[in-house]
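Please decode residue identities from the backbone states below.
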């Protein structure tokens, strides 16, 4: 199989990341089909994808003609048989649970053609945790994206059983959709950037959950010293607090780490209230005008978020 054989990309899970990944593929000439568990979710997702594409057009990332062509390449269906038909490449973005990922891949192994390559966008898991369950372990590897509105850096991470030709093809595919590829030579929970980011999240959540300092002052400290436009809590709001909670809680339980569990419980209060971050308009901050973007924030002159 060669790169030119890849025509249709199937996106499993049309949430925050699935939407962006599908759009990136469609913008670069691939046919894209979104699959999710209900028509309602897909209708919302396709609207969000169209809005994101229109925003890209306003920033010059797409011309009006490219915008039209991109949207024409996109379809969505809650019917797994239809979704899998003719899929050459799968990008999975269902919730961060190894059993769920294994189950979804096993389902699509039965439905997709034999040549189809499977990739996972997992944040902190490793492909060997669910490669066996997929039914085609030699054809799966991780292709992990960050927030595509901000960066096209991706990680390509095979597991020991991935066919090296598949790893190469996934690398070539990522380059073909305009990505900067970081290759991992061995499996590592969190790839390269997320390994560093999770240490930052852990430290920030520990400071807040132990009541050492406020969310705003922790971010102010990071922003003031590094000149970054947002701090760890602002970044968590962008990632989505249900995703931050599920990853933190999973690893806390797996490691039996008390502090990590306190950190997960701290995020859980927000998740339980439905404050999931940027996507719901409220998380650690309120959107569209979060306090950390206000002119006086660094000086400590803005109202404290409630
Ligand atoms: N949010 C981020 O910044 C980010 C970045 C990189 C990687 N990731 C990873 O990407 C994956 C998805 O994260 P997200 O933030 O997009 O989550 P999300 O909750 O926004 O989206 C998940 C989607 O999967 C769907 N889903 C659930 N069960 C399904 C099933 N059986 N079949 C098909 N679809 C199903 C849900 O309905 C939902 O639409 C996770 O593994 C996460 O760790 C997230």
């Amino acid at each position: 199989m060669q790169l030119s054989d890849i025509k249709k990309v199937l996106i499993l899970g049309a949430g925050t990341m699935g939407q962006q990944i599908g759009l990136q593929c469609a913008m670069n000439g691939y046919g894209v089909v979104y699959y999710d568990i209900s028509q309602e979710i897909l209708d919302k997702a396709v609207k969000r994808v169209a809005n994101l594409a229109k925003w890209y057009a306003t920033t010059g990332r797409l011309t009006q003609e490219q915008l039209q062509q991109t949207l024409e390449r996109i379809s969505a269906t809650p019917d797994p048989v239809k979704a899998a038909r003719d899929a050459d490449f799968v990008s999975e973005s269902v919730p961060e649970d190894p059993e769920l990922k294994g189950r979804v891949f096993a389902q699509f192994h039965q439905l997709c053609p034999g040549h189809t390559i499977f990739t996972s966008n997992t944040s902190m898991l490793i492909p060997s945790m669910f490669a066996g369950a997929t039914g085609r372990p030699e054809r799966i590897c991780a292709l992990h994206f960050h927030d595509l509105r901000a960066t096209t850096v991706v990680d390509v991470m095979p597991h020991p059983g991935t066919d090296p030709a598949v790893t190469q093809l996934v690398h070539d595919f990522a380059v073909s959709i305009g990505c900067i590829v970081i290759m991992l030579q061995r499996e590592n929970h969190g790839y390269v950037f997320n390994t560093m980011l999770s240490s930052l999240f852990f430290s920030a959540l520990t400071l807040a959950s132990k009541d050492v300092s406020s969310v705003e002052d922790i971010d102010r400290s990071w922003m003031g010293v590094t000149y970054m436009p947002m701090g760890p809590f602002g970044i968590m709001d962008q990632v989505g607090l249900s995703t931050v909670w599920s990853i933190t809680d999973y690893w806390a339980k797996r490691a039996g780490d008390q502090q990590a569990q306190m950190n997960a419980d701290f995020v859980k209060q927000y998740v339980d209230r439905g404050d999931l971050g940027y996507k719901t308009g409220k998380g650690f901050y309120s959107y569209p005008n979060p306090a950390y973007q206000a002119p006086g924030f660094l000086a400590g002159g803005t109202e404290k978020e409630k």
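Observation: The radius of gyration is 20 Å.
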